[in-house]
Specification:
214 residues; mainly alpha; Arc Repressor Mutant, subunit A; Tetracycline Repressor, domain 2; 2 domains; 11 helices; elongated
């Protein structure tokens, strides 16, 4: 049997890193999942590289290979959260119906349902608090919410194409504030308080009305 040619051996060497890269991506995802959970459930005071490494059951040096500092890890958690919402909107869109109105209503319901998850509510409370105290986190907060408002503005736009750009921006900001403010009432909580029955439906109606009116 003849040996492989130099060209084939070179191609094989180039192909080998694919599996380690996949393992590295999986490890990063595992770290970011654990980091978000620690931040949400234990707060920023406990959000350390050592604590996250312990949560993932890896050595501190292994985690530092991917995220050298706590700030690096915090930023990565935020950026991944923003990207996850974008991916969810694309993934869920077909289930929200075919009209712009049904898609906006679906987006609102998705965001409100997500607020009931303890890790979601806990993460955002910690993100807001950190953004108030640390300038770099504050810039990250504004950047993330600017992106979020743009997604809402785009979803609202077809319901009233004649709305001015400035009005559309302000209404998207109001919708964002309304949804985030719901954290006080439903954040991390199961739907068990009878005094809140129908609240999410009413919020959805108000947002659809805001998107449609002049």
């Amino acid at each position: 049997m003849t040996s492989s040619t130099p060209r084939k051996r070179s191609a094989a060497r180039r192909a080998r890193p694919a599996q380690p890269r996949r393992r590295g991506i999986a490890r990063i995802e595992e770290i970011l999942d654990a980091a978000r959970h620690v931040l949400a459930q234990e707060g920023y005071a406990e959000f350390s590289l050592r604590r996250v490494a312990r949560q993932v059951n890896i050595r501190l040096s292994t985690l530092q290979h991917y995220f050298p500092s706590r700030d690096d890890l915090f930023r990565a958690v935020v950026e991944r959260t923003v990207a996850a919402y974008d991916a969810a909107y694309v993934r869920q869109s077909a289930q929200w119906g075919k009209t712009a109105r049904s898609k906006l209503a679906g987006m609102v319901r998705y965001l409100l349902d997500d607020l009931r998850h303890p890790d979601t509510a806990g993460f955002f409370v910690e993100f807001w608090a950190r953004g108030m105290r640390d300038p770099a986190a504050g810039r990250l907060l504004q950047q993330a919410y600017r992106h979020h408002r743009d997604r809402i503005r785009i979803a609202m736009a077809p319901l009233n194409p004649s709305m001015s750009g400035r009005t559309a921006e302000l209404r998207a900001l109001l919708v964002t504030a309304l949804i985030e403010g719901m954290t006080i009432f439903i954040g991390g909580q199961p739907a068990s308080d009878p005094s809140l029955d129908g609240l999410e439906e009413e919020v959805t109606r108000w947002i659809l009305r805001m998107a449609s009116e002049r």
